[in-house]
Amino acid sequence: MKTILRYLLRYMARFIAALGTKTIAAFMDLVIPWVLAYIIDSVIPTRSVPLVCIWGVIMLVCSFLGWSGNIVANRLAASVARDVTENVRHDLFTKISYLSNRDIDRFTIPSLITRMTSDTYIIHRSIGMMQRIGIRAPILLVGGIIMTLTLDPVLTLVMLATLPIVGYITFTVSRKGVRLYRNVQVGSDEMFRVVRENATGVRVIKALSKSEYERRRFHKTNTDLTAREKKASDTMAIINPSMSLMLNLGLVAVVVVGAFRVQAGATGVGSIIAFMNYFTIILNALMSINRIFTMASQMMASSDRIVEVLNCSDEIHMHHEDSIKPVEGAPHIEFDDVTFTYPFSKFTLDHFNFSVNHGETLGIIGATGSGKSTILQILMRFYDVTSGTIRIDGVDIRDYSIHDLRGKFGVVFQNDILFNDTIGENIRFGREVSLDDLDTAVADAQATEFIKDTGGYDAMLSIKGANLSGGQKQRLLIARALAGHPEILVLDDSSSALDYKTDARLREQIRAHHDDCTKIIIAQRISSVMHAEKILVLDEGQIIGYGSHKQLMATCPLYREIGETQMGVSE
Fold first, then answer.
1. What is 2-310's CATH superfamily?
2. How far apart are CA 92 and CA 133, in angstroms?
3. What distances in angstroms separate CA 257 from CA 148, 159, 260, 268, one per listed residue?
């Protein structure tokens, strides 16, 4: 909550202006019943029409000032809420962009999205309401009580006798509300996860005729969220009827006592009428305060979730050397007794030792789940190793800044993404890439022909490149990786959708035009890695083979089995 308040301080001038304007408008609303009582009890008995008109004009002026003041204050409040939420959302997005994979796994993507959308919306709505009602309601409540004290202290005390009970109920229920609304947001995370999974896997769901199953799964999640919202709403709903009951009991007592006091001449009819108006003002103020408590409960739950992300440590420990000098003669990439275990998982890479020299190609092959992509995750520091050291040019990767480290790589991930933009922008990806470099990268990636057929670099792609085939997507992604002239090119199962002929031409172009680039090829097919100088064979997080294709065919049973199955060759 303190973090959100720091955002408010940036707009303190507008906040104070809204506060002052709202205060003046509230005082104008409080003055009107007092003027009405004065007219009835003091002005009308004089039978002076001009005097009645003068006080009537005063009432109109007070009404206009209250009306216009509320409009100005509400506009200021809306602008403060808008700008605070914009800054919170911007900082939250920036923070999420730099979260470590470990933290992303802990929060989960659906939860981070709901914090960016649903929780920030609650913050926006709450800040606006706090300024509009949070200032006005207490002033009307306290001011109304003070004004009734000036009219008839006895009747005021009769009315106030119920306030301690109302306050106790409101405080007790609101404390429970914070916990319940936090549970509601957790339920929103779960429902968003189910919706996201359904939207992403809609083709698979339809292909397997699982639509009815997914409807039942969504219904269960939706019902759970509805139950949480109902419990929170029902709990907070206790306040309003309890408050109305107690205050109306107080009003009944005020009317009864007031009748006796008018009959006894202790108070005037105008005072009773004004008192009734003030009672309405006080009742509405208390109802507004109840809304504030309800909204504050939601805001505290949402702000805690937002602050939890904002207060996370920076992506991977960001310590690094100011000036790094490569070690002469050191391998380009070296894994030195590296062990790694995923958080929330038992999968482990166990004591990896290998190296790759400048310009060499390292092929990595193994069964699904053997740890191929995990090597990439720790090499680029999406996760830190559990033990051991990874070096680039003889320097521990933890001594590089994240920007400098990842700037060395051109990567095509196993499940990479294309954006709803032009083909050219999808390849450039925000980098300054000349047209010649763009043409070269596209040609090396074997994508020139289909890009021309599609409409050139200015042709638009659908979301996730839905208007392209699998092979066309992979060639665009490879062109994106090559366009940046990387020191290290990583292709993570990036040619699985290519036919053998196109795959062979692609590998030939990379060898011919990027011979100074160190290449890491992660693949399922031996044909994609057999020409590499070094090949790693993995099985369940273990290195069971390391060497050239010829060496592995002679010494590694698993590699030989894969080769015989895929290529029909024996040792």
1. ABC transporter type 1, transmembrane domain (1.20.1560.10)
2. 27
3. 14, 10, 5, 13
Q: Are strands 534-539 and 387-392 parallel, antiparallel or unpaired?
A: unpaired
Amino acid at 247: L
Q: Say if residue 168 is exposed, middle or buried (CB neighbours under 10 Å; 0-12, 13-18, 19+).
A: exposed
pTM: 0.69
**Within a 10 A sphere around the Cβ of 7, how many other Cβ atoms?**
18
Q: State how far the Cα of 563 lies from the Cα of 554, in Å rounded to an integer.
A: 11
Q: Are strands 488-492 and 518-523 parallel, antiparallel or unpaired?
A: parallel
Query: Pseudo-torsion of CA 348, 353, 357, 359, nearest 10°?
Result: -30
Considering the segment(s) 333-567 as one domain, its CATH architecture is: 3-Layer(aba) Sandwich (3.40)
Amino acid code (one letter) for 94: T
Per-residue 3-state assignment (H helix, E strand, C coil) for 308-331: HHHCCCCCCCCCCCCCCCCCCCCC
Number of other residues whose CB lies within 10 A of the CB of residue 71: 12
The tokens for 171 are 């405080």
What pLDDT is attached to residue 571? 45
* Domain locations in the chain as residue ranges: 2-310, 333-567
Tell me which residue of 479, 469, 519 sits closest to 499, measured CA to CA. Answer: 469
Minimal CA–CA distance to 384: which of 313, 304, 476, 458?
A: 313
Two structure tokens written together for 273: 């009428």
Answer yes or no: are the C-beta atoms of 221 and 166 closer than 8 Å.
no
Tell which residue, 290, 291, 305, 389, has the closest CA to residue 119. Answer: 305
Closest CA to 191 of 148, 142, 227: 227
Q: Taking the CB of residue 507, how many other CB atoms lie within 10 A of it?
A: 21
Whether residue 470 contacts residue 497, with contact meaning beta carbons closer than 8 Å, is answered with yes
H runs (alpha helix) in 445-499 = 448-454, 470-483
Residue 570 has pLDDT above 80, yes or no: no
For residue 331, give the nearest of 390, 277, 276, 278 by alpha carbon: 390
Residue from 32, 256, 248 nearest 155 by CA = 256
How far is the C-alpha of 161 from the C-alpha of 546, rounded, in Å? 85
Neighbours of 511 (CB within 10 A): 13
Residue 514: strand, helix, or coil = coil
pLDDT tens-digit readout, 489-536? 998 888 777 887 888 888 888 888 888 899 999 888 788 888 889 999
